[in-house]
Amino acid sequence: MTDDLLARHQAVLPSWVTTYYGDDAIELVSGSGRRVTDANGRSYLDFFGGVLTNMLGYDIAEVREAVERQLATGIVHSSTLYLIRRQVELAEKIARLSGIPDARVFFTNSGTEANEAALLFTTNHRRSNQILAVRNSYHGRSFAAMAITGHRSWSASALSPVSVSWLSSGDRLRGRMKGLSDAEHIDAAVEDLREVLATTTSGDVAALIAEPIQGVGGFVHAPDGLLGALKKELDNHGILLIADEVQTGWGRTGDHFWGYQAHGVQPDLITFAKGIGNGFALAGVVGRAELVNAVPATSFSTFGGNPVSTAAGNAVLDYVLDHDLQANAKRTGTILLDGLRAAVGDAGIVGEIRGRGLMIGIEFVRPGTTEPDPAATLRVFDECRKGGLLVGKGGLYGNVLRMGPPLTLTDDEAREGLAILVDAIRTADAEA
Ligand code: PLP
């Protein structure tokens, strides 16, 4: 850093806005392709894609040109007053891709707001503020979004506009730790749902919200089909399903365009954010017209679907489809997963290597146990940085290394990052 930006950061930003690297904070100043450069001129391969935000990578000509064309118009703008061509175009594409008949798209600026909107649509439709959520989930940081976030330190409880019941068995790890097969796990989850519904006292439940793969929770995926099995039970009660696809959408999981498609289910509402703007603030919810249209007309967002973000969004989505990035995510994700399993699958600190497409998590444990090891995780994380690779960390116990590289990752870059990861894990394993 050319000046002490960290000290300046700490002097004016809230104390809880910490950087990923603490005292070794990095200031990124530019990016190109899958690489970013810091203020000292050091280049890193970015396996976290921003925060899964730069789905195409950095400085992508198609996105830059679309945004520059829009900027050149002078930014005539207001979502709430005039027609916006780029917004209509993007909504048409997302509605078509959602699989929801007669779908409507409501644009917001963040995933949190998208989930707020989805909660509004479902609670309004069902005339109930009761929501089902999944333990270990993450849906954002507004009051309602925190209330449905399945971590004790987040759930906002009494002051929240929604009342929440928890489903514990959406957490695949619990099933695995109990030694359940996928089928047994699904049965247990349905049983859990039935029990929750039998004991819910605050009126009819409006909706279940779930991430097909838990992101912040540590890239934990439910067994295939679990959401579909739950939906059958929900349908008996008229309860709606919201799929939070903020991390899992647009082909990232390789096998499917949306994460929920691994579950043989069609959600009533899908929320999206992060990657679709490739760095620009763009998010929203797509859902059944009868749900979306029914809320009061005052429910709009000033900047939601603004011309610049939607110009970027159109370019991003066209790029994803034109270049079949879903297939690229599957192929490069397989290189990483297979490579990791072969090289460090039996390392003592590696509890589990899991993933789908380019959403890959490595869970670290104390050797010979299933006890989480956040210290080993941190060690690997730091070694990766030293080796020139940026990754994410997290999970309920802080013991998961998370990777969500841009979907444009090349095979060579996958192998380059893999080599750094393997070295980092071996180093940390030798010290454990
Ligand atoms: N939902 C999921 C699954 C997320 O991972 C996130 C952010 O990490 C959000 C919602 C909140 O999105 P945002 O930070 O854009 O408000």
Automatic annotation (TrEMBL):
Belongs to the class-III pyridoxal-phosphate-dependent aminotransferase family. This is alanine--glyoxylate transaminase. Its EC number is 2.6.1.44. It is an enzyme of class 2 (transferase). InterPro entries: Aminotrans_3 (IPR005814), PyrdxlP-dep_Trfase (IPR015424), PyrdxlP-dep_Trfase_major (IPR015421), PyrdxlP-dep_Trfase_small (IPR015422). Homotetramer. GO terms for molecular function: alanine-glyoxylate transaminase activity; pyridoxal phosphate binding. Gene3D superfamilies: Aspartate Aminotransferase, domain 1 (3.90.1150.10), Type I PLP-dependent aspartate aminotransferase-like (Major domain) (3.40.640.10). Keywords: Aminotransferase, Pyridoxal phosphate, Transferase. The keyword Transferase applies. Its cofactor is pyridoxal 5'-phosphate.
